[in-house]
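Ticket #4471: structure export looks truncated?
Reporter: QA, pipeline team
Priority: medium

Steps to reproduce: submit the single chain below to the structure queue and open the exported record.
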Amino acid sequence: AFMPVGTQATVKATTPEELERTGARLILANTYHLWLRPGAERIAKLGGVQRFMAWPHALLTDSGGFQVFSLTHMNQIDDDGVTFRSHLDGAKLRLTPEESMRVQGLLGSDVAMLFDECPPGGAPREVVERAMRRTTAWARRSLAVPAPEGQARFGIVQGGTHVDLRLSHLEDIASLAVDGVALGGFSVGEPIEEMVRVLGEVTPKLPTDRPRYLMGVGTPFDLLAAIGTGVDLFDCVLPTRNARNGQALTWTGRVNLRQARHKEDERALDPGCECPTCRTFSRAYLHHLVRTKEMLAPRLVTQHNLWFYQDLTRGARAAIERGRYAAWSDEVATRMREGDEIGSPDPNQREWRANRT
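Actual output as written to the record:
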């Protein structure tokens, strides 16, 4: 399943009703941003984040750690937590496992992520090992905070691209009373072959009785590769971010709606798609909206891209049930590569690399 990202209690450029029609039943909201603005206490007073944003289905909140650690020039990390300055007003703040879980409890999410430290891509082994030790200690402290009734909690496995470290940390996290296991620290600049290599070794060792979540991934090719290793759940801003830049994701590859080739193209954006955008508007009209920077452009393209991601995961589930996932994923990847109109296939580009596991 794919989770659209609703960072600030909104999936950008779409309404909850439109999002529901794509088939999405689980979305992600960001603890860090909602903690800073409008504040967890205010959201709790208004009935929790789902009621606040009028989303009638399930919602997962991240721990806030990734955003804090990404503020590398504004944070100080120690074994107790992290001190940082708000990107909004520079105020000095402190985030610990206990505070992260308190905030997620106030937000009222269905799934809360345990506080972790995500080491930067390419970090030395000793830095990765330190992040693992902290993540395990912080997971235990996170679990010691009472959970709101009905809230599930997922632990996060770190370890970079070191298979032995991943497997060691997996044992630590899976031994805890967690409802799901997530793999963090991927898609931070490593080649897709490296990600798939590590996933191929680690994913089969994940518990089979709990969801397997690959955080922050990724392109359609990334999803196809990761599903092949046994991953269940994904989130990524790519379909909404690319839509705001005039890029559509289709069964025949990426479509750059800025290009002049579309100015008189009466075809649907993706003939194989049943989304309202594809059933109603031509590429020529979408090209016009994108080039004139009309507000409707990101709304229509976002709606399509989110629909495509849900279709992609629906197709994967159906192929798995039929016992032909490997063949199906190869067919899909080949079709997307051959039809892609944003540059020629370049083996040095992440999205073009082989998806076979």
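Status: closed, not a bug. The export was complete when the record was re-opened. Leaving a note from the reviewer for reference: The radius of gyration is 20 Å.
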